Amino acid sequence: DLIERIASDIISALDRPFMLGNDLAYVSASIGITLYPRDGETLAAILKNADQAMYHAKDAGRNRFSYYSPSMQEHAQARLQMGTDLRAALAEGQLSLHYQPILDLTSGQVFKAEALLRWQHPTLGEIPPTEFIPVAEELGLIDAIGGWVFESAIATVARWRALWPADDQANCPLQISVNASPRQFTGGRSIDGLLARLAALGLPGHCVAIEITEGMLLDKHPAVAAQLGRLAAAGVPVTIDDFGTGYSAMAYLKRLDIDTLKIDRSFIRDLTTDPGDLAIAEAIIAMAHKLGIQVVAEGVETLEQQSRLNDAGCDYSQGFL
Ligand code: C2E
Ligand code: CA
Ligand code: CA
Fold it and tell me: What separation in Å is there between the alpha carbon of 291 and the centre of ligand 3?
């Protein structure tokens, strides 16, 4: 109809590259559409609706238009509510860490575990991290939450270390791996907090490991490389999570002192039936080992997957199994 034709015309007109001085420049448009008086009767209501519809168009990949719908309003409301609840969650101890063992395939022993964040909401029950972490990131709460995660993980590993023979503390291999959000590397104080806490307790850097995603290595933000450097200087190993799903950054692997790669679950799932997935896992293991990097397979659910990974020379295995 007319509205959509006009919106499409605007988007394609803006989509054309143009010269800015001597450079070729590109812009894209995201358009939110709301109808008067169907969706709202005041100027304020209409602007708010159009704004929400525009954010919806951006989230859907930009360079497109989107209509306002009442469910967007509900969605925005729910996120806002979740933000309020999250602030309370930290203060009231509703967050906890669960530890998934990381099996050393060579020795068959478990000295490492990954900390996975859980939120027990007082009325909604358990909310998965995939739902509340994006909200925490968006609302600027991730540094506080991530700081809490670091602190709890360190307290736990300190408790575990206390069970190791007192005369052999220097060789204690116990390690907790924690997930970190990109925002914790580009701003905030949770990395400082982590390093300060380790120093205050006299713990070696290697009793924690930090898991980041591939995309972060490509981030040109100067803070990212600086923070990675500080972790390396303190002896805190860095793991690349979900390896193989993002933009690969082979050159960065070496330059940035990466300790471990985690093969993403999506390659492990069909490992025993899909020769392509097995080949990818084997190639990642071979490449990592040539670079002196260790490999963890994640999402291992069956003994068969585990034994294939063992045959392929994978160092560690982690998952529901
Ligand atoms: P991730 O780091 O890739 O964590 C692995 C996820 O896979 C976890 O889900 C875990 O429960 C699940 N998983 C483990 N083994 C298996 C398996 O054998 N099969 C299947 N199907 N799934 C398995 P979870 O705990 O819901 O965490 C989801 C994501 O949330 C994590 O993905 C991580 O990106 C993020 N996350 C969790 N805790 C934190 C945290 O403390 N801070 C930050 N920033 N992110 C976190
Ligand atoms: Ca992880
Ligand atoms: Ca992962």
Answer: 21
What span, in angstroms and rounded, lies between the C-alpha atoms of 299 and 194?
A: 27
DSSP calls for 173-210: --EEEEE--THHHHSSSHHHHHHHHHHHHT--GGGEEE
Sign (positive/negative) of CA torsion 82, 83, 84, 90?
A: positive
> Tokens 């919106």 map to which residue?
7
Q: What is the CA(319)–ligand 1 centre distance, in A?
A: 10
Q: What is the pLDDT of residues 150-168, one digit of tens each?
A: 999 999 999 999 999 999 9
Question: Which tokens in the block code for residue 6?
Answer: 């006009």
Return the structure tokens found at 108.
């068959």
Site to probe by mutation for ligand 1, drawn from 116, 120, 318 as the one with most ligand atoms within 8 Å of Cβ, is: 116
Question: Mind listing the pLDDT tens digit for each residue in 248-278?
Answer: 667 788 788 899 999 999 999 999 999 999 9
Quickly list H helices, the chain: 2-15, 43-59, 70-91, 129-138, 142-161, 183-186, 190-201, 214-218, 222-233, 250-255, 265-268, 275-290, 303-311
For 285, the 3-state DSSP assignment is helix
- Give the predicted TM-score (pTM) of the model: 0.85
